[in-house]
Amino acid sequence: MKFSFLGTGDAAGVPVYGCDCAACQRGTHDPFYQRRNCSALLESQQSRILLDAGLTDLCQRFAPNSLSGIVLTHFHPDHVQGLFHLRWGKGSKIQVYCPPDPDGCADLYKNSGLLEFIYLEPFKSLILGDLQFTPVPLIHSKLTFGYLIENQVGHKIAYLTDTVGLPKNTLNFLSQSPLDALVIDCSHPPEVKGRNHNNLAQVLDLASYLQPRQTWLTHLSHDMDRWLMHNRLPDHVEVAHDQHMLSFCD
Questions:
Q1: Are 199 and 192 in contact (CB under 8 A)?
Q2: Omega cis (within 30) before 242
Q3: Nearest CA among 45, 237, 39, 9 for reference residue 155
Q4: Cis peptide before 212 (omega within 30 of 0)
Q5: 8's torsion region: left (phi>0), alpha (psi -120 to 50) or beta?
Q6: What CATH number is associated with residue 41?
Q7: How far is CA 83 from CA 17, 34, 58, 108, 195, in A?
Q8: What is the reported pTM?
Q9: Contact 165, 202 (CB under 8 A)
Q10: Could you write out the DSSP letters of every residue in 38-69?
Q11: How far does the chain reach from its first CA to its final CA, in angstroms?
C-alpha cells in the first residue's frame, strides 16, 4: 500500500496570495515548500483511491478509468472544487463516497454528470478492492468524516482532516488497535487556538493518546510553516509535504 500526499495545505495554501511572510517567500522561491489543498492518493494491488478532490487539475492528473473511486472527508470547496470540472467528462461513472451531507457543495448533487455520490455511515466499513475505509466522525463546521484505512495484511492509517480535537467515540474506536500512521490536521502553531482546526498542542495530545508508530502533520497553514522554521518537533512527528509518499510493505 502506498499513501501519497498530493496536497498538504489549508484552504489558502502556501504561499498565500499577497503575503510576504518568511514561509510564503520561501514557498514562492522553492517548490518543495509550496502547499496545495489537502488531499492524498492511496494505491494498492487492486485499488487506486483519491482521498478528497480539492486539486483543480484532476482531469490532467488522472487518466480516464485510472481511479477506483474518490473518498471525500467533507464538502468544503477546498476539498471538492476539482469535481466541478471532472463531472463534465465522458465515460464510466466515478463513484464518490462521502458523508451524508444533505447540502453538498453548490450544485454538485443537482448536476453531477459522471459522478455518482454514495453516502457513508459512521463506523460502517467500506471495502474498495483490497482496501477498507471506516468513516469516523470529526469536529468541524460542516459534517466531516476522517477514515481508518486498512489493507489486507493489517497496516492501518488514520486520516483525520479537517478537525479540531476528536469526538469521544472516534477517539475510543481508533485506540482499539495500533496505528502505523496518524495523518492529522495541524493548521495552527501551539499558541493559536483554532475554531475548526487543530493546533500543534492538540495534535501532540492526540498522538500521545493514540500512540501511532508515526504522526504526520498535514493541512498546514503558512503560520504553522513559519513556526516550524524556528522550532523542532518530537522525533515521532513529521511534517508532510506535497508529493511525499509513505509505503507499507505487505
A1: yes
A2: no
A3: 45
A4: no
A5: alpha
A6: 3.60.15.10
A7: 23, 22, 8, 8, 27
A8: 0.96
A9: yes
A10: SEEEEE-SS-EEEE----TTHHHHS-TT--SE
A11: 7
Are 156 and 70 contacting, i.e. CB atoms less than 8 angstroms apart?
no
Q: For residue 112, give its domain range.
A: 2-247
Backbone φ and ψ of 114, nearest 5°: -85, 5
Question: Tell me: the pLDDT tens digits for 156-203?
Answer: 999 999 999 999 999 999 999 899 999 999 999 999 998 999 999 999
Q: Per residue in 32-68, pLDDT tens?
A: 999 999 999 999 999 999 999 999 999 999 999 999 9
109: which 3 cell numbers? 448533487
Query: Per the structure, how many domains does the chain have?
Result: 1
d(CA 114, CA 112): 6
How many Å apart are CA 150 and CA 1, to the nearest integer?
9
Segment 86-107, tens digit of pLDDT: 999 999 999 999 999 999 999 9
Q: How far apart are CA 202 and CA 220, in angstroms?
A: 14
